[in-house]
């Protein structure tokens, strides 16, 4: 799999290179020019001066006869410095050698992390209250001064989730705005939704103008993604929310008292990297505490930290004390698919919660099979329909292999009309949504999809009867079709069932570690609910058949993706920040990491969707537990200098690192990639431990945030053969001693090859501070 990944990567990069050269070097394209830290004199009034100096820089590069191109699409000057502009390839390369320029890269298109990209925006899936697995209400503070910035597709301000009854005045630290735009007035903001901005969406080459038009010059969400993520993070309590009766309950965000500022950077075709940078720059200036980004580069096109707009923006936000929480991506379950993996980003994987949506299949032989999916089927138990397998009803001249996959144009309508069609998924190039449309178009009455992948993320088929089963059930269905002359079946309407199975479990689509950039930081960081989440949406039907006849579009819908997991953590972080106002972003992140649970509701280790025990590359250190995170005992503080050292170890030059830092930072003399493992991170990862070598020793420093006098002892769990020692293995804190450093040594002579996972837990009788390690033995 890994080989294939690498091959695909090579293939895509190669084709990218070929196509760029083919388009020609002379066509201007959008580029981001990143110029590092914004020195204090560039802020405020001086920002005008910075802007004109950027224009001057452009005028040196762009020929005077094309002077109309001497214009900045976006200009960054608050949290960091730089701009985006239309440049030719040679101009871009000339600029990149220029003094003060850190990096120049083509403005990338990033994707929204709802469901897999091939299912992109197709699963309008609904949701139950936050933490349906029994975590008590987080808190009922009437309001707090915590502000989260949601960088996404904008917001639908009329949603009941953004009402401001009982919420206090807007915090005085808020410096943002409520931009007016098409169908969006200042009065659409309130004490809950305190700010909204939108950006002109920069065209990428070959772009359809209607794409830009779709953004419609307004903060208003026309996609539904941003409204959903914002309400997961900080929606107020809304009673009796449901998706056409499914997932009924009280909808509410992780931190209902937190304020929301919406930054619209994406349309339903994706997000421009330059626009995301601009939004982060604005959000930091506006005074947000936490930024939530359910967006990322495709795992096939990851770039290094200083050419990745989210990594750049998040670095500077962190430098200004703003926590950035991002989704890990939906390209799982293959390894090396995690994105947003810089150590200063809080990277979130997705889990299933203790709820499932079932659509039962009844076969003519009386057998019942459980499938998953959301449908508003009007089929009934009493009427059976003929059941056909796609390849048996292939249109003329169509290979059976296409028809069994229900490819567009592959079915003979005369043989499908009135029947239920069974499709398989040997070839993932056609999404669930397309298969459903193909079968619906073929005048069938329902579709049964056999697909092991993603059956844990229920697909929303609207009113068309749909259900998805795994290979086991699929085999039974095909066997039944073979066994009789006249196979029949029906699909019953979706019911919501409490999961009898363990939960949470890692969602199959959730992107997996290790990070392809460095294996010396463990990624993803933590896991949070991201499957079948009910939250606010825009009350608009996107395609016919998505709303049951006679019903109004729903104000709430069920969606899946790491996009949904990310704002759960944003909400949890806002909750912790509202209690521990002075905590830095790394303290909040550490608290959520060391208190995460790696046990499920059956008190067994967490598993993945194929029932194997889940490892840290699947779920990070475990599922967040916000209430326990309020009182973590010890925290790992990772400060800006740690991140700068990380960049030295990673291999950037001191000159570049100085230009992005606010200080005259010096790289350690003996910087090497190995030393990344000793960056003060709340988990431990070691990319190579040679069997022959001496023990590898890393260091960590903990800060006591619990009782002043506390004594912690270390408990190690390591796989057979890996020798792990903690020195000292007892930490004694007192009034004068708040921070302590310890070493952990790993010795792998007898260990088995490949990744070894384990944990080191500090215990004081009140707290347990759980640190997970991943060590690759060679
Ligand atoms: C742009 O998109 C619209 C609607 O999706 C389509 O009708 C039009 O043909 C497209 N134009 C180009 C140049 O692709
Ligand atoms: C809840 O919503 C349903 C429709 O979805 C409605 O029939 C019912 O009366 C509502 N209940 C309350 C308490 O508002
Ligand atoms: C189910 O709904 C479809 C339209 O969505 C309608 O054509 C069909 O007659 C209905 N079937 C039954 C059994 O009500
Ligand atoms: C489907 O049936 C119609 C009407 O019976 C007939 O005209 C048509 O040729 C048939 N199409 C195919 C592909 O057999
Ligand atoms: C059904 O029959 C076909 C050929 O008649 C065979 O290839 C296939 O394996 C059978 N499927 C099952 C599930 O028995
Ligand atoms: C679950 O974990 C096992 C063991 O690591 C692995 O073989 C399997 O592919 C994983 N399944 C998924 C869906 O990630
Ligand atoms: C790196 O150099 C410092 C002093 O320059 C030294 O204390 C430290 O042990 C060195 N680390 C390694 C891994 O060589
Ligand atoms: C901590 O211990 C010291 C001496 O061991 C004692 O004087 C002090 O009162 C203790 N503080 C607390 C908060 O228990
Ligand atoms: C769970 C659910 O909402 N099921 C619905 C499926 O569709 C039928 C008919 O539209 C409804 O009656 C069910 O309530």
From TrEMBL:
A GO molecular-function annotation: serine-type endopeptidase activity
InterPro entries listed in its UniProt record: Peptidase_S8/S53_dom, Peptidase_S8/S53_dom_sf, Peptidase_S8_Ser-AS, Peptidase_S8_subtilisin-rel, Peptidases_S8_3, S8pro/Inhibitor_I9, S8pro/Inhibitor_I9_sf, SBT
Domain Peptidase S8/S53: 144-600
Domain (Inhibitor I9) ranges: 31-113
PROSITE patterns: SUBTILASE, SUBTILASE_SER
Record flagged with keyword Lyase: no
Annotated Pfam families: fn3_6, Inhibitor_I9, Peptidase_S8
Localization per Swiss-Prot or TrEMBL: Secreted, Extracellular space, Apoplast
GO biological process terms on file: proteolysis; response to symbiotic bacterium; response to symbiotic fungus
Main localization of the protein described in the UniProt heading: secreted
Signal sequence, start to end: 1-22
SUPFAM superfamilies linked: Subtilisin-like
Record-annotated Subtilisin-like protease fibronectin type-III domain positions: 679-775
Entry GO CC: apoplast; extracellular region
Keywords associated with the record: Apoplast, Glycoprotein, Hydrolase, Protease, Secreted, Serine protease, Signal
Active site, renumbered: 152 (charge relay system), 225 (charge relay system), 563 (charge relay system)
General function of this protein: Required for arbuscular mycorrhiza (AM) development during AM symbiosis with AM fungi (e.g. Glomeromycota intraradices).
The family this protein is said to belong to: Belongs to the peptidase S8 family.
Name assigned to this protein: Subtilisin-like protease
């Amino acid at each position: 799999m890994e080989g294939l990944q690498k091959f695909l990567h090579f293939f895509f990069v190669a084709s990218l290179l070929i196509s760029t050269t083919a388009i020609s070097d002379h066509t201007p394209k959008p580029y981001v020019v990143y110029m590092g830290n914004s020195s204090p004199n560039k802020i405020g009034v001086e920002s005008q001066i910075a802007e004109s100096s950027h224009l001057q820089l452009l005028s040196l590069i762009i020929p005077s006869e094309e002077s109309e191109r001497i214009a900045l699409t976006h200009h960054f000057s608050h949290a960091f410095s730089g701009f985006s502009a239309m440049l030719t390839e040679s101009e871009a390369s000339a600029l990149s050698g220029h003094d003060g320029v850190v990096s120049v890269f083509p403005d990338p298109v990033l994707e929204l992390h709802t469901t897999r990209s091939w299912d992109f925006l197709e699963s309008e899936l609904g949701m139950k209250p936050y933490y349906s697995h029994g975590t008590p209400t987080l808190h009922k503070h009437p309001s707090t001064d915590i502000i989260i910035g949601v960088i996404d597709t904008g917001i639908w301000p009329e949603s009941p989730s953004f009402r401001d009854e009982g919420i206090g005045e807007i915090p005085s630290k808020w410096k943002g705005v409520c931009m007016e735009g098409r169908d969006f007035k200042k009065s659409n903001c309130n004490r809950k939704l305190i700010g909204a901005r939108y950006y002109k969406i920069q065209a990428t080459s070959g772009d359809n103008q209607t794409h830009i038009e779709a953004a419609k010059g307004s903060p208003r969400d026309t996609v539904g993604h941003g409204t959903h993520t914002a309400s997961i993070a900080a929606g107020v309590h809304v009673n009796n929310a449901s998706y056409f009766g499914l997932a009924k309950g009280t909808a509410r965000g992780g931190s209902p008292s937190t304020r929301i500022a919406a930054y619209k950077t994406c349309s339903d075709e994706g997000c421009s990297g330059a626009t995301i940078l601009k939004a982060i720059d604005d959000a930091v200036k506006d005074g947000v505490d936490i930024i939530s980004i359910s967006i990322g580069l495709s795992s096939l096109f990851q770039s290094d930290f200083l050419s990745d707009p989210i990594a750049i923006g998040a670095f500077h936000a962190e430098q200004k004390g703003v926590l950035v929480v991002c989704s890990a991506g939906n390209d799982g379950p293959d390894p090396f698919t995690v994105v947003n993996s810089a150590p200063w980003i809080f990277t979130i994987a997705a889990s299933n919660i203790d709820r499932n949506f079932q659509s039962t299949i009844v076969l003519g032989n009386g057998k019942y099979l459980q499938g998953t999916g959301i449908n508003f089927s009007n089929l009934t138990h009493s009427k059976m329909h003929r059941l056909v397998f796609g390849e048996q009803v292939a249109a003329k001249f169509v290979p059976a292999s296409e028809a069994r996959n229900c490819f567009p144009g592959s079915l003979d309508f005369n043989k499908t009309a009135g029947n239920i069609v069974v499709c398989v998924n040997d070839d993932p190039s056609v999404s669930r949504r397309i298969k459903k449309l193909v079968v619906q178009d073929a005048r069938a009455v329902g579709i049964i999809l056999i697909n092991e992948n993603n059956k844990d993320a229920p697909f929303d088929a609207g009113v068309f009867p749909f259900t998805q089963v795994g290979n086991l059930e699929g085999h039974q269905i095909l066997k039944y079709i073979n066994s009789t002359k006249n196979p029949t079946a029906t699909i019953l309407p979706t019911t919501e069932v409490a999961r009898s199975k363990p939960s949470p479990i890692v969602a199959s689509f959730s992107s997996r570690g290790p990070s392809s950039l460095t294996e010396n930081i463990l990624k993803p960081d933590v896991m949070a609910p991201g499957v079948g989440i009910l939250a606010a949406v825009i009350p608009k039907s996107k395609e016919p058949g998505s709303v049951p006849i006679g019903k109004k579009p729903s104000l709430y819908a069920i969606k899946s993706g790491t996009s949904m997991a990310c704002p759960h953590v944003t909400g949890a972080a806002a909750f912790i920040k509202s209690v521990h106002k002075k905590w830095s972003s790394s303290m909040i992140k550490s608290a959520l990491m060391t208190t995460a649970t790696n046990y499920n509701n059956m008190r067994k280790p967490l598993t993945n969707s194929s029932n194997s025990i889940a490892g840290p590359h699947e779920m990070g250190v475990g599922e967040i537990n916000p209430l326990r995170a309020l009182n973590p005992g010890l925290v790992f503080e990772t400060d800006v200098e740690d991140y700068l050292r990380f960049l030295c170890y990673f291999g950037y030059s001191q000159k570049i690192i100085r230009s992005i830092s606010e200080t005259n930072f010096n790289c350690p003399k003996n910087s090497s990639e190995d030393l990344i493992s000793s960056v003060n991170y709340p988990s431990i990862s070691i990319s190579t431990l040679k069997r022959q070598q001496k023990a590898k020793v890393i260091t960590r420093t903990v800060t006591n945030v619990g009782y002043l006098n506390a004594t912690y002892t270390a408990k190690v769990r390591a796989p057979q053969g890996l020798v792990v020692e903690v020195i000292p293995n007892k930490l004694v804190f007192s009034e004068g001693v708040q921070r302590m450093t310890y070493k952990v040594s790993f010795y792998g002579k007898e260990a088995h090859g490949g990744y070894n996972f384990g944990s080191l837990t500090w215990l004081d009788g009140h707290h347990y501070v759980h640190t997970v390690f991943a060590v690759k033995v060679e």
